[in-house]
Amino acid sequence: MFSLSEENYLKAIFHLERTYPTGVSTNALAEEMSTKASSVTDMIKRLSEKKLVAYKKYQGVMLSEFGRQTAVDVIRKHRLWEVFLVDKLGFAWDEVHEVAEQLEHIKSDKLIKELDRFLDFPKRDPHGDPIPDSKGNFVTSNKVLLAELKKGESGICIGVKDSSPEFLQYLDKNGIALGKEINILEKESFDQSMLIKLNGNELKISNVISSNLYIKTS
Amino acid sequence: MFSLSEENYLKAIFHLERTYPTGVSTNALAEEMSTKASSVTDMIKRLSEKKLVAYKKYQGVMLSEFGRQTAVDVIRKHRLWEVFLVDKLGFAWDEVHEVAEQLEHIKSDKLIKELDRFLDFPKRDPHGDPIPDSKGNFVTSNKVLLAELKKGESGICIGVKDSSPEFLQYLDKNGIALGKEINILEKESFDQSMLIKLNGNELKISNVISSNLYIKTS
DNA sequence: ATTTATTTTTAGATTAGTCTAAAAATTGTT
DNA sequence: AACAATTTTTAGACTAATCTAAAAATAAAT
Predict the structure, then answer these.
(1) DSSP of B88-127, one letter per residue?
(2) Which of these, A31, A72, A161, B23, is most buried using a 10 Å CB contact count?
(3) Contact at 8 Å (CB) between B128 and B160?
(4) What is the rounded average pLDDT of the residues A127-134?
(5) pTM listed for this prediction
(6) Which of A206, A208, A179 is nearest to A195 (CA)?
């Protein structure tokens, strides 16, 4: 069993490894964890002693296979709880993050197994992020930013890049939600703004929006 | 906001106040918390500084009104989560305690409000203990031990005194569950054993059993 | 290739929560 | 009332997780 703090560090390293595949720097981790570099060094030493990460002084840190599985277990719990909060308790998708941050640390294999079943084995969380299975496998799909599509193309909304409450509320207000089909009717070459068809209506959206919406093209 | 440890102490004091209404001794608390008396003294000082308890050296401890409300909030969360685990996730009533011990510390007013609604505002947990409302009021009812009833009397099973897995499994095996009606057909004056009617069948139970089952007589 | 700037680590201090061992206060017994 | 037994508190130490300030290592720049 690992402490709350250890689990949060593992999660942060997991996410940062996508950006820094050769090793996550102490400063990057300090930034992500909103803490000081010296604290990060201390924690990395602990994680290293527990064989959760590979660490060489001044060379940054990477998860071990054991560390990766531990991080993914926490992420799995986080995303399942988010589905619970939205689907069962009626939370809006911009309200779930901080509660899920707490719930993800509850320790009970049976709890998460039964929750998964209760939710009917969801594959994605309310923001469209994939939920890993208990072995740590993520679903992969041809996920692209809406901004990358051309006039005439279409796809299903599967997630957001920016998950700030402001953006999520903008989406709600305009009827954009996960699972909705979007057709690109026009694309303005000057500012990349788009005219899209959604819910049977036409809607004008700027490049800021289309650059933060993930789409699955069949 | 209070720490996990502080909340657990408040809960323990709340429960012990029923047994020691004039003040909970340091040793009693140490026993309940499975810790040392010196640790208890330290914690009591912290709780006292935060106005959660009234404390005079060597005189034991009692909850302040603020402390009582805080303890009851935690108990409310514990019991609501137990209902969730049993009713929604299919846990047995002897499996829920340790998971609920973790879930009770999640901080979110909205979460507990929506969970209460989702569970349809339950009044008792799976062991029959009353769930306080958000203001800290418990339902009260004419709750008696089955052993106190006489031949010919009857009532509804509403809770257990001993909530050990062994006892709960015994009850399951014999079809005794919350909400079931029990009629006392015979009561043996020699050993207080009873012949009861339950689920349409007759069942012989010893005094050990009837002394640990709470019954609501209408 | 030195010097400068940046990043990272160490050293030492702090807080919450715990412990052991010993001292102090209270209670019980003759 | 005085001694013994019990309970409770204090004193001092430990761990996990953090911090600040300073030292050491690496990277960048002239």
Answers:
(1) IT---TTSSHHHHHHHTT---HHHHHHHHHHTT--SB-TT
(2) A72
(3) yes
(4) 91
(5) 0.83
(6) A206
